[in-house]
Amino acid sequence: MSRLLHWLRIGFDRVTIYLPIILAAALALGTYWLVRNAPRLMEPKPPVPVTHDPDYFMRSFVIKRFYSDGELRSELRGKEGRHYPDNDTLEVDEVRVRTVSPSGLVTHATANRGLSNGDASEVQLFGNAIVVRDAARGANGEEFPRLEFRGEFLHAYTDTERVTSNKPVILTRGDDRFTADSMDYDKISGVANLTGRVRGVIQPAQPAAGKP
After folding, report:
1. What is the mean pLDDT of residues 82-107?
2. C-alpha 156: how far from chain center
3. For residue 59, what are the contacts with CB-CB under 8 A and spacing of at least 6?
4. pTM for this predicted structure
5. How many CA within 13 A on the CB side of residue 102?
6. Phi and psi angles of residue 140, each rounded to the nearest 5 degrees, phi first
């Protein structure tokens, strides 16, 4: 019995000597197993090239912009809209645009289809395009007659109140009517540059009230 206890004590002593090594080996194996079975981090993917495909759609929608004082600046409506992320444009079916200038002049634009930039400050109108500026009186009493543009294509810049076209247009200002192959109208200068085959009908000025 004493001999057995002697050998057990020797064996225990030897195990005690190698116990740190055994624990270190077990810890290393456990760490290795965790590393092998741990979920891998997502590897960075190369950027996907942006294509000219719509990333979202809208139906029967309204987009409004406002001045810093809260007054309406522009309003864009459509039957259906498709946004293209590659150039940040919005294609709109049955587009309707209403803008209000800082001086209070109201302009309406309609077309079968429209293409607007991201902030709706530039709208291209395709098919039965019409842009109308309502008649108004300025703060200084200046009269602004009704102004209308018609054509199969009109390019409206809502912030600068400019309308251009490289296709035939009809311009009506009050009772006067002009046609041309292309046009560039700038509200700031009040000048409409008509090019190509230009024709116009200018009505005689009406006499002021009380004058013959």
Report:
1. 90
2. 15
3. 79, 80, 81
4. 0.72
5. 7
6. -90, 10
Residue 90 pLDDT more than 90? yes
Q: Are 183 and 168 in contact (CB under 8 A)?
A: no
Instruction: Please check whether residue 71 is in contact with residue 63, taking contact to mean a CB–CB distance below 8 angstroms.
Output: no
Name the percent of the chain lying above pLDDT 70.
77
Neighbours of 172 (CB within 10 A): 17
Q: Whole-angstrom Cα distance, residue 75 to residue 52?
A: 25
Can you read off the two tokens belonging to residue 138? 């300025």
Whole-number Å distance between alpha carbons of 97 and 119: 13
Q: What CA–CA distance (Å, rounded) separates 203 from 85?
A: 48
Contact 171, 180 (CB under 8 A): yes
Q: Distance between CA atoms of 197 and 179, rounded to whole angstroms?
A: 8
Using left for φ > 0, alpha for ψ between -120 and 50, and beta otherwise, residue 206 falls in beta
CA distance 164 to 16: 94
pLDDT digits (tens, 9 = 90+) for 123-135: 999 999 999 998 8
The vertex-151 CA angle with 160 and 132, nearest 5°, equals 50
Contact 190, 158 (CB under 8 A): no
